[in-house]
Amino acid sequence: MRSKIVAGNWKMNKTYHEMEILLGELEAKVPDTEAEIMVAPSFVNLPRAFMMLESSVIEPIAQNMHFAESGAYTGEVSADMLLGIGIETVILGHSERRSIFGETDDVLAKKVVAALAKNLRVVFCFGEELEDRKSDNHFNIVADQLTKGLFNLEADAWKNIVLAYEPVWAIGTGETASPEQAQEMHAFIRKAISDKYDATIADNVSILYGGSVKPANAAEIFSKPDVDGGLIGGASLNADDFMAIVKAI
Ligand code: PGA
Questions:
Q1: pLDDT for 104-115, tens place per residue?
Q2: Which one of the listed residues 36, 66, 94, 138 is annotated catalytic?
Q3: Ligand 1 centroid distance, CA of 95 (Å)
Q4: pLDDT classification of 244: cutoffs 50, 70, 90
Q5: Which atom of ligand 1 lies nearest, measured to the CA of 171?
Q6: Which residues, listed in sequence order, are joined to residue 59 by a DSSP beta bridge?
Q7: Does the CB atom of residue 234 touch ligand 1 within 6 A?
Q8: Taking the complete model, does pTM exceed 0.85, yes or no?
């Protein structure tokens, strides 16, 4: 059985003190749920987040990491550094990493391999741009991102993969994919995995939707059979909104 997951991607938001306040609020509002709950503060705040959440059901996760073990990579963070502060899950391939920081499919494939080699769990993000959808090329783009990023993995590696389908045109824009569009793409993704590997792997992988998920639209999106949760940006910065989304699952 695949897990239901709601993950908050805080991006470059929340100072140390602001994070302490938000984590305190989140802790106070955690509903009774079987869903896994994750939050991704910035690197500098992760050790404190780990300490604050040590006995919590909320898991602190990282927003990124480098593929190299260590070395001359100014400004980067390695898998061992994350493990060293207790972090067990990392987001890779977020569309902002791809578009603003130039991370290619090849770089992301290396990052995935490096993270899995250290037993980190990977939340792998991918999704098409607006032009791709307008030109009806969205399925090809998504299949290509999956193939280049993940289809070199051994079957066994998939137990540590969570997918986050995030159409770029829906991220931070207030425009959400309709529940039908999300379901259609998630089913396509699951079928692609089943074709490449097998139905058991495809059935067991959690596929999150991301892109302007809010308390008002979460329940409908999460009601779709192939949508196993959400990767939440803006709405994860407010404790009431984030926990309302967690409840919606
Ligand atoms: P958003 O961001 O919820 O603010 O659209 C989602 C994401 O970037 O993961």
A1: 999 999 999 999
A2: 94
A3: 10
A4: very high
A5: 5
A6: 38
A7: yes
A8: yes
